[in-house]
Amino acid sequence: MRSWLLHARESFWFLPALFGLGAIALALGLVEVDRLLVVRGIDDIPLIEDLSATGGRAILSAIGGTMLGVAATSFSITISVLATTSSSYGPRLVRNFMADRGNQLVLAVLTSTFLYSLVVLRSVHTEEDSSLAFVPVIAVSAAVVLAVVDVAVLVYFIHHIATSVQVTTLQARVLDDLERVIDLLHPREAREEDRTHDDDQAGAERPRITAERSGYVERIEIARLVSAARSEGAVYRVLALPGTHVLRGDPLVSAHGAAQSESDPPAALVTLADGRTPHQDLRYAVQQLVEIGVRGLATGTNDPYTAVGAVDALTGALVVLASRGGPRTRYRDEDGVVRLICDWPGLPPLIADVGLAVRSYALDQPLVVRAALRMLERLETVCDGGDRSAVRREVAALAETYGRGSRDPLEREPVTAAFAALLQRLDSPRRSTPDAGLAR
Fold first, then answer.
1. Is residue 120 within 8 Å of residue 139, measured between CB atoms?
2. Under 8 Å between Cβ of 56 and 117
3. How buried is residue 203: exposed, middle or buried, by Cβ count under 10 Å (0-12/13-18/19+)?
4. ∠ CA 205-207-211, rounded to 5°
5. Which pairing describes strands 338-341 and 235-238: parallel, antiparallel, or unpaired?
């Protein structure tokens, strides 16, 4: 259900459906209020003028038809923006536009106004239609108010769609996804013993959840897996992390430490999807920013500043991730017993993805190389242990690859010197504190 709600919130139909139902309920409710006022003989309502049936129908028809046309135009503009974004910055960013609450809200308000006007219109009667004429003046007046709101929403939509196609806005949205998944997988308040990657569980493991179909692991229900493991008296281990492609029958979760129970935990505790999403997939969230930068370096675009912005955005997120000391890999029940082991990715595979993209696509772009060098310099100030070794590997690989090419001497000498200085610092014990390094 949680996975379904996540997909629904990132769709164009969910919010318009809710608003549409609300508009129908509001229309029926106001019409009934008008009927009660007519029955009680109340015809003098402050700020609301009497309307003829012809006038009421004309107002509602104009509002309903106009709003439906505006909604269709707005949707066409949105589809055009989606196509442009897909071709310019990558098809995987289409999800960010569909999940944008502003676009969903505009479509919902415009379509719900049409439905409201349609429902109220059917209640307007003349003496020729029935023995008693009826014009729901309150409901018609509310339609006029909704039309005024729709004009404001249309102005907002024009501004919002113009802002949303800017690359800085796209990077900010992807960065929000990345920071959210960092907070989830690398929480600041996690205990140090829950961050260990040592295999402290002995005994043979057996599959407990297997894939019911082929696809990508999208989400694992951590709390429910912990509860299932506790009820069984076992320890579960996640074998396929979010972002992993699995085939039908592949093991997703294994267990050890207790006898096989009569019933397996439900397979829905691990959600499979046709594509990857950044909800629990840290590497995918990083790769989205990397893709924005790589697309900016394409031959037809040739925009290194887009790549520099992507690397700078990644720098802030990766520095925060590195400063937290590693992901949380052990999850405990209420009694403090480890019930779930999940080896989330740490910093090394993430900077490896970034380094590979820089070495593959950006070596002939000095601005991007300098941005990557700044990122590695800042990571050097906050990394320890294995993370520091991973940073050194990336620096050495980037320096070697950069040195093999023919570069402008005015550019090559300072960059090569910066690589050498950074390698020297990485080979010596770190003397600065994280705060001092960031300040520098």
1. yes
2. no
3. exposed
4. 150
5. parallel
Angle ∠(381,385,391) on CA atoms, nearest 5: 55
Spatial separation of the C-alpha atoms in residues 389 and 206, rounded to whole Å? 34
The two structure tokens encoding residue 76: 């066409």
**pLDDT per 10-residue tile (average), the chain, 440 residues:** 72 88 94 86 67 84 90 83 75 76 89 93 76 82 93 91 83 90 85 64 74 92 90 90 93 80 74 88 91 82 86 93 87 90 91 92 89 93 87 92 78 86 83 42
Residue 434, number of CB atoms within 10 A of its CB: 16
State the chain's maximal CA–CA distance in angstroms: 95
Which residue in the block uniquely carries the two structure tokens 């949303």?
Answer: 164
Instruction: State the DSSP code for 233.
Output: T
Using only C-alpha atoms, the chain has a radius of gyration, in whole angstroms, of 29
Query: What is the Cα–Cα distance from 96 to 281, expressed in whole angstroms?
Result: 15
pTM above 0.85, yes or no: no
